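Problem 3 from the worked examples.
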Amino acid sequence: MRKLTFPLLAILLVAAACSSTEDPPQVTGPTVGADDGTDGNGADDPVVELDPDDIRLLSRLVPFRDCDELLEHLKDEARERVGPYGLDYFGGGFFRDEIAVLEETGDFGDDAASEAEADRGTAGRAPQAEGGDGDAEYTGTNVQEAGVDEPDLVKTDGERILVVSESVLTYVDVSSGDPEKTDSIRIPEGWGHEMFFQGDRALLFTNGGTFPHPIPLIEGDADVAESTISPEWYPAGAAIIEVDLSDPDDLEIVATLKIQGQYLSARRVGDTVRLALTSPPNQLPWVYPSTPASEERAERFNRQLIDETTIEDWIPRYELTDDEGTTTGPLLDCDRLHRPGQFSGFDVVSVLSFDLDGGVDRGDGVGVLAGGQTVYASTDRFYVATTAWAGQEVQGQDGIVEWEENYTTNIHAFAIETDEAASYVASGSVEGSLLNQFSMDEHDGYLRVITTDGSPWNRQNQSETSLVVLEEDGDELTEVGRVGGLGKGETLFSARLLDDVGFAVTFRQIDPFYVLDLRDPENPEVTGELKIPGFSTYLHPIEDDYVAGVGQHATDEGRTLGLKVSLFDVSDPGDPAEVDTWILEGANSPVEYDHRAFQFLPDRGLAIVPFSLWSGQTNGAALLRIEDGSITDLGRVTHTPATVPPTSDCRVLGVDDLPEDTELFFIAQDVSIVQYCGPNDTGGYGSWYCDVIPLADLRFWGDLETMDELIDDLTGGRFDPDQPDDDRVEICWPDGGTHRYDIQRSLVIDDTLWTMSPTQLQANDLDVLDDLPVEAVIELG
């Protein structure tokens, strides 16, 4: 077998589905293929027969010449779809009729909501991070593609470590033998931050917060109910925050780009960062009929409203604040926006480009009128994919059947030349839905996609997974090869495609581990299959002929029992074997849902796997030696809770300080602490866990007038919701629970293992594996 040079993926996607009414192309069965193209018995290997009816192409994208053409197109599409309840459009392709039908039938399925959580994906061994002037050897973030970095909670260049945890960025100098925390800074925008850094600049990406976009109420006909839209509508916002690292003792936020929309993911190639986000149109002040007799008037009013819209009502906007002040405007130029030939909704997928050395600006973006969910990037292509569900015409039970059996995933490809803005290249479509970013992989000019067809809301478990090969043909991604029949009636749990070989894991009660031969892009094959109890949700190449899987051990009936690491021998693609296992009963690992939690050191044969027991009382990271076809448990790393007396420099608020009948009033009566922290207050409450609520968000924790009065009292009337600062309210809970010390990440600098939990960064000496002495503990925040 060809040497595995890239990492592998696995992550859970719950998508139990019913079969399509049209059977996809099938192979006659897995074979143990020899290089001569035979199955070893003199018979020809099975060949995929493609029916032209099975090939579904997304019409090519068409750029707009100017804003007038773009606005007229949007109005035309909206006029065709508007009704007495407006567009009934909630973003991502869902319409009121579809949701109403699902609510009426109750046929959501147990795990339908889980699909949105599967976007994060998993990865494997990363190249060394760039930057740093020393000679230290260090690991980087687990990534999908070598040379394509991904943002993370912790980054290093060998001389320093940056950690973002609970909205605080911490700088740790590790250039000498005495690690030192030099400074930390609170990030006021959003939550769930991740970052890149290089030289004197860090870029942090986040969702959360709001993007201000006031809209007026429009008076409707007397027979039409008043609009339920408030006078000020604040759509969801994403943000990019630039932090100046030039003075390690005084970190400073120097620029913030707020964007109307949702951040999907980012990638870095060289000094250039590409970021993808999806933005719904601005909510318009639709009116709704008060009685069935007034529906005609409501529809007439809403049509008039569409006629009066401007381009600002449809495309996303930005707000950039830096040392030159604040500027706002449309995120994309109209001639940089494209439309599919087939209507794909009113959302906008934007791909922005930034020079990491140049900092934050508008982002020089390009966009598509379509939704966006999944991001994958190679060194020269950036792909954004989204599942396209049936449109507004879906009604009744027949409509639900149509929806279940006819949905596709649209894929848009952008060229990412070095130091150039991204540009649109091609689009295509595959039947079914994707698991996550690792369902896509580009190799030798072909895009390989693993997709699962069938309804994720149906409990009949008749789904089926296929691999589809696409090739750029002009500005279309055209299907040239396919193999199906993977995991019939089962859920796809992981997938990874590496050069000429691929792997997929499906699960219902038993885990089928599939091996795929990808040498011939027009005729991919399933060459081997292994069935074992449990499942792997993360896969990683070990040595030349082994793959490690991290997931759950399970009974033959499918009941999970605890964390399991499997070692698969894939030297014979036709006969994969599980040759060793490591099991920790009653435990799970963040590796199961986040690839970046896994670390593997090939030169040491050492895997680092964070874990926590279901009881919540024990956590840490297991050190496993994986080499020579075996797994050896070498020991544990744990983070011991710090004992800090509960003190604070903030103003603790009692029940007498808070308005009655508000959530804060009732919280303050509990064992928790509610405190107001000004811009110069450090905050926190000893070792207690503290939730941080910016005052801009606190306004919506109760009656707006009441909360504004409280905020005025706390700040002396100086708070401005349009320009919030570091003022905040913190809600602190005793001890915070053991999850405060769950290890989330690991990295290695020379012979030191650094592990990160939400509260601390800890160094252990890797040269002394028998007792792993603690070299340093850095408190975060």
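Problem 4, a separate protein:
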Amino acid sequence: MRTSFFPNFSRLVLATLLALAALPPAQAQSPAAPDSLPGISRPFARYTRQALVEQLFVHLDRPAYAAGETMWLKIYAVDGTRHQPLALSKIAYVEVLNAQQQPVLQAKLALSRATGHGSLNLPADLPTGSYVVRAYTSWMRNFSPDYYFHCPVTIINTARPAGLAAHPAAASYDVQFFPEGGQLVRGLRSRVGLRVVNPAGRGVAATGTVHDAQGQPVATFETLKFGLSNFDFTPLADASYTATVQLATGQVVKIPLPAARESGYVLHLADADAGHLRLTVQAQGSTLPPGQVAVLAHAGQRIVASAHSALSGGVGEFVFDKNDLPDGITHFTLFDGAARPSAERLYFQRPRRPLALTVRAAPASYAPRARVAVQLVADAPAQASLAVYQLDSLAASSPADITTYLALTSELKGTIEEPNYYLRDTSATGRAALDNLLLTQGWSRFRWNDVLDGRAPALPSLPELNGHFVRGRITDRVTGAPADGITTYLASPSRAIRFYNATSQYNGVVQFELHNFYGPTQLVFQTDYLRDSTYHLEIFSPFSTQFALGYTQPLALSPALAAALTQRHVQVQTQRTFLGRFENPYTQPAHDTLAFYGRPDEQYLLDDYTRFPVLEEVMREYVPGVLVRKRKDGFHFLVVDKRNGLTFRNNPMVLLDGVPVFDINKIMAFNPLKIRKLDVVDGHYFHGPLTYDGIVSYTTYKGDLGGFPLPPQALLEEYEGVQGEREFFAPRYETAAQQQSRLPDFRNLLYWQPDIALAAGQPRTLSFYTSDQLGRYLVVAQGLAPDGRAGSTSVVLEVKPAL
């Protein structure tokens, strides 16, 4: 008797619950204050314990690429509460989306101990445009795609760099208004944030005036940074307002303001003093529910402060200690007298103790093909990654670093222009720009009605705790109705025998958990067609079909970039021609190739015996543990259970290269000269919910079925498994002969190292060689400590002509 320990559906659910229960519980209130809102904080804590937030940060090697280059990336997986490494999921899904939200590249990357890395080869015919790299896990698909990792990148097809254009027309500029707290209310003075962007999604400088219907000015504004600004005004009853926006180009745009409500709440958040925040609440309208209003301050699935109070004359104030607020985004949510969420305001606390990550490069300038040694050091143990790329006009901007992303942009929707600025500039201008940014954001990652009603969150996508899930559906071929309770089988023809089974659920869905599943392969999905022949089978794509808005924008390239584009074109063509053959291929990581049933009780290498042209002779002559019987319907196999001294009455599970064969007559008609090996398991074998009366497993020489005809009821589908391992290639110039090589080296990416383990205070030295390409290069390092502290650092080095 043998048992397969592959987890079935119920065991996977149990493992998920154990993983969630092992997490630290969410705090229900500020540590120094009692729980003043049990009717809100308790269901909130219960909900958030069930809906664990998982986040990914992806370190890309560069912000801009040419078609035909390779994009290298490192993934950090963290929990959304304290941003500590979270080793929950074992697979991350990475996609490159075009401006139409269509994936042009997709990959599955393995995660181990909360990190992973891989690469994407950008097709040479990829059109010039703005793209978005997004990443998520199976578990993250339970939540809004707004909270997947997103990073805009520019990809230029240097052979066809379409998109060189002048300034866009005024009509295509976008102006949006965001009342503080979420709404304008008649008769209540409000602060309104605004954003002015061009068609490429970048903020533009503008000034403007707000007029009422009679043309009288009621407010003025001027953008500060990235097209963001704010103004104060009081909307009156039965009045409409229009903003006249004057662009820096001299063009004028007129936009109506959102209509004010007759009743509602208005929030205003400001510093009370250096250590406290004051949240002012104003209420107006006879339809508002009576009773006290409440404010819940929550961050990263934790309640950090709460308070409630009656409004006096429609006004109330709540003061919060900044020391009670964690680093990053805090949501202040207002609940009305009926405990309904009515307004929300965001506050940002700069990280007070980020990971101190330092990179040193001395000297600062180098000759072509010179050795560069950089030292990377952190003040705590950390996982880190490092890239060195050329700074040119195409790679002038940098995406968010890990500190900025985890603390700020991961909680905000849409593209944030130059997000690193908000942590870098601590001046009065920087603080005002940050507040303008927060005014244009709001509302939480979950639905409050689900929280307060006590409903458990819908979590149909389980975390991939051990391996990749292949999911599919089985339906009635005639009616199209889901088929419930049907046993299905999944296999991938190979010399390494991997075989899975699952029973369909009420909706016809089946799920298989695949282990050590790498590279492109063919999947065979079927039922036992001798019993269940009337079903339609399909395999789902594991990639999300839900998309967030606001990340992809049109690309308008300035004519001034023509020289940079020419340089990139030369770099790409030279790299492909002279260095392409040296690039390392993908390889599968070392893993156990033992068949799922372990070591068989009997094994026969058929080349060790006289080869017979008919499989019946092979079985009768060489395999005493399997009896061949012929009945009215044809051949049958009966396995001899030697342990118990009996013979099973039913056919065993018969496999060919791991694919089940239900019709013994077909395997008996197969050419035995194509079979290399035969394994026999001669006892009961428990495989998930099924029990087999032994196993008879044939393996061909190539593991490709050897031309065996599969039944027409089976579904055969080409499928991409988890991406294999691949090392970054860069030439080394250690000898005089290598330095004098006539092969041109115009690399713009000098170095990429995604897997750096740092010990506290101990420098790691990393070395690489410069290319023939002169110019300035940016050394960028990202790191994450076990306690959730993130850090990023960079230094510029220059490659100059040799003296």
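Solution to problem 4. Residues 5-34 have pLDDT under 50 and may be disordered. The first strand starts at residue 2 and ends at 4.
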